[in-house]
Amino acid sequence: MIEGAADPGLYDYNPYRNRAKIEWPEGKTVAVWVSPNLEYYEIDPPANPHRKSWPKPHPDVVGYGHRDYANRVGHWRLAEVMEKHGFKGSVSLSVALCNHIPEVVESANDLGWEFFSHGIYNTRYSYGMDEAQERAIIEDSIRTVKEATGQTIKGWLAPALTHTPRTLDLIAEYGMTYTCDLYHDDQPQPVHVKSGTLISMPYSIEVNDHYGFFVYNMSPANMPTP
């Protein structure tokens, strides 16, 4: 028997073949969740000793400009297509966008999109945070989105997918009901937390544009349809 680190016990093993069939409202047979990322990257963020924000020496003007394109062009084009075909978005939001480029957040809110937190900036990571710092990020997210949109966020996608051992317990404690940070299943599944109720929401990172272009080296024409 090979010994290793203990299973963290985040969720139960629930094999697909033995599950009860999901019954969607009104007899619907499929559920589609469209989750655009509206993010904000700093061109020269504070250094995190656990991870570099940019692969090039700061300031990485090219990397910054590539990501800023989304807020100037990408969001607006995507929103037009989604509205044309009747899709509403559940937005993974870098909440600093509410202050830096409020026009983008106002646009999504006016379209009736839902917001959940993707941290403050996507260039500031949870690695190395103590509990007080992590609580401050969560509280800032709740407060900032409420003030900007009137919505109370119920979900969490950690900034740049970075975590601490306490992240899931904390977001559940603050009343969040779902996390997008677990990629272990195709269906919503319960997550074990100290208080509250938390569900893992399937987030199809395999069809994320960044992974498609820069990890799998695909062209836009060959990107799979979510």
- Computed structural class: alpha/beta
Series of H and E elements: EHEHHEHEHEEEH
The whole-number mean of residue pLDDT values reads: 90
Weakly predicted, low-confidence segments: none
> Could you give the order of strands across the largest sheet?
4-5-7-6
Report the radius of gyration as a whole number of Å.
Answer: 18 Å
Largest sheet features: 4 strands, mixed
Distance between the termini: 40 Å
The tally of strands reads 7
Fraction of helical residues: 25-40%
Q: How many helical elements?
A: 6
- Proportion in β-strands: 5-15%
| Apparent shape | globular
Description:
There is one protein chain. The longest helix is centred in the N-terminal third of the chain and has 24 residues, at 61-84. The mean pLDDT is 90. It contains 6 helices and 7 strands. It has a 4-stranded mixed beta sheet, covered by helices on one side. It has a 3-stranded parallel beta sheet with strand order 1-2-3. The termini are far apart. By secondary structure, the chain is α/β, with parallel strands linked by helices.
How would the blueprint of this fold be written?
Elements: E1 37-38, H1 61-84, E2 90-93, H2 97-100, H3 102-110, E3 114-117, H4 131-149, E4 155-156, H5 167-173, E5 178-179, E6 189-191, E7 198-200, H6 209-215
Parallel strand pairs: 1-2, 2-3, 4-5, 5-7
Antiparallel strand pairs: 6-7
Quickly describe the structure:
The chain has six helices and seven strands; from the N terminus they run βαβααβαβαβββα. With 226 residues, the protein is an alpha/beta fold.
